[in-house]
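so my prof wants the structure for this chain in the tokens format not the other one, which i didnt know existed until like an hour ago. anyway here's the sequence
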Amino acid sequence: MKKFNHVIVRRPCKSVCDGITSAPELGKPDYEKALRQHDAYISALSRCGVDITILPPDDRYPDSCFVEDPAICTKNCAIITNPGAESRRGEKYEIVDAIKQFYKDEDIEYIKEPGTLEGGDVMMVGDDFYVGRSARTNEEGIRQLTDILERHGMTCTEVPLEKVLHLKTGVNYLEHDHMLVSGEFVTKPEFQKYDRIEIPEEEAYAANCIWVNETVIVPEGYPTVLKAVQDLGYKTLVVDTSEFRKIDGGLSCLSLRF
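here's what i got, hopefully its the right format
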């Protein structure tokens, strides 16, 4: 099944070493290594039958390689978000031109103050969307998102977060009713109806895999998750994202897929 035709990525900037982190003990990213990992990430996506728009690095915003947060791309509309992290607010203005290459102006919506919303908190399951209420995504942001999606024929379900940064830090949908869950998401009632693959705590980071046209990209170094995904019958590709993990990033954060 081919669902995605387009991908947008942004190259890591030199200031990526100063990105926001909740795990300083992992150390700062190595810029050159991050570039090599990003190259491998783009290469993996290119093998999934999509065209890729590569945006230039933007040193004003250390976290700007995480293009998933300032925009949400659906089949019916695009939504420019309002990131909850103050240092990332300007990223929303820098993604608009890229979005306009694929959506008409009347199909581009905007989250407005005082609402905050980051794309890492939004998970698409067909025409239904789950949104995490987190430190970065507030009640008003979710209200606006719900209204926007409903106007475009889609639905939205709020999921309160207790521990993780973003919703997709710990739960990701792989299509065909399969869902990777870890930590607090194992018991979330919102996801009980799916075929849930529980991720062991020691490999929780790898709950953030991405499905792209029947291929699942898995972070390198998590053999239990890799085998679980392969056992579901998916073709897999493995990409090292260790430098991005140091600044709270994973596979889904690094691209917009639509």
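also thought this was worth mentioning. The longest helix spans residues 31-46.
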